[in-house]
Every structure is written in C-alpha cells, then in structure tokens.
Amino acid sequence: MEKSNMAVKKEKSEKKPKAPAKKVVAKAPKKEKAPKEGTEVLDAEETRAVKEAKETRVVKDAGETSELKGDLKPDRYWEAVGRRKTAVARVRLFTRGDKGIWVNDKPYGVYFHTEEMRRIAEDALKKMKAQERFRVVVKANGGGLHAQAEAVRHGTARALTKFNQDFRKRLKRAGFLTRDSRMVERKKFGLKKARRAPQWAKR
C-alpha cells in the first residue's frame, strides 16, 4: 500500500533539522573623539561670524530693494534709433540734468571734430528750438563719423516725435525723419570695385 500524502509530509517535516537560533549581540557604541582644547571656542566664533555675515547681507539687500522702490527712481526718457549707411545711433532724450548732447560719453563738440558734423548732429534740435530743453545721450557705432552724425540727427528727430507728435510735420518737411538707405555697393569678383573693371590693354 502506498503511503498517504499526509504521512509523507510528516516524515519530511520530521527529517528536517531545526536551525539553531541566532544569538543577538549588542554592539558597543562608538567612542567619540574628544575635541582638542580650544576647538569648541573656535567653532562658536565661526558660527557667530557666519550669523553676523548673514544678518548684514539681509539688511543690505533690504536696503537696496527699498532704495530701488523708493527714492532712486530712474529718469524718464524718450528713446529712438537712427541709422545712416552702416552707422547706428541709439538716442535718449532726458528733460532733467545738464542740457546738451553727449555721444559715447563725450560732448558732441569733442566727438565730432568738424563744424559740419556738429551742425548735422544738432540740426533736429535746432529746427524745433529745443537745444536748451533736453539732455541728449547717444550711443553710436558702425560707419564713419559723418554717417554717425547723420544717424544722430535721424534718431534725435524720431525721439522728438515720440515726445511731441506736433513736431512730426516740420521734421518730416526738413527731411530729418527719412531713412537714407543709400550704401556703398559691394565689390564684385573679377572687378576692381563694385563696377570698375580692370583696364583693357590691346597688346
């Protein structure tokens, strides 16, 4: 007779030896190194210094933000860009401060060294009789000085129309609002200049 399934299971369970219980050994706590003499005082001083630095930084940042929000408001201005050939002039008109024209942080009389270029730069203000009314700050780059002077005139005229739309008619009639787009034509391959061909020799 074959053994029943229950009997087989009991025999197997009886044959398996029980594993011995693991002994739990409590680990000894690690010994902390005793601090050297004087280190505690240094740590306290460092933490105090860090706290003071943070506090001063917070106070400084708060002061800067309050100044930006409060008294130190930027001056109002009217801005426009003038162009001529490859010269570009960014013009800003301020009603506050010393009156005059400054180009690249220099008085326009120093920056433009000929009388003709100075006249061109101030033409738009002269036309509207507003020389003693504005402080004009210009950032000019590209091209030559003559082209920059015409770019300053163009930018000043545009900024004046933003300040007062009634100025537009007179400035337009004078031609100061027209963008003069004439530029030097590029040189072509095989030619001396844009159109100048090499001299032809028969023999």
Structure description:
42% of the residues lie in helices and 14% in strands. 20% of the residues are buried. It has a domain at 77-174: Ribosomal Protein S5, domain 2 (2-Layer Sandwich). Strand 3 and strand 4 (106-107) form a beta hairpin. The chain has 203 residues and is α+β, with helices and mostly antiparallel strands. A 5-stranded mixed sheet has the order 1-2-5-3-4. The protein has helices at residues 5-15, 39-69, 108-111, 115-127, 145-163, 168-174, and strands at residues 77-84, 87-94, 100-103, 106-107, 135-141. The protein starts with a helix and ends in a 29-residue tail after the last helix. The chain has 6 helices and 5 strands, in the order ααββββααβαα.
Task: Indicate the topology.
Elements lengths: L4 H11 L23 H31 L7 E8 L2 E8 L5 E4 L2 E2 H4 L3 H13 L7 E7 L3 H19 L4 H7 L29
Parallel strand pairs: 3-5
Antiparallel strand pairs: 1-2, 2-5, 3-4
Helix pairs in contact: 4-5
Question: Nearest-angstrom radius of gyration?
Answer: 42 Å
Question: Uncertain runs with pLDDT below 50, 5 residues or more?
Answer: 58-71
Q: Describe the largest sheet.
A: 5 strands, mixed
- What is the percent of helical residues? 40-55%
**CATH architecture level-2 label of the domain at 77-174:** 2-Layer Sandwich
Tell me the series of helices and strands, N- to C-terminal.
HHEEEEHHEHH
Shape: extended
Q: Assign the structural class, choosing from mainly alpha, mainly beta, alpha/beta, alpha+beta, or little secondary structure.
A: alpha+beta
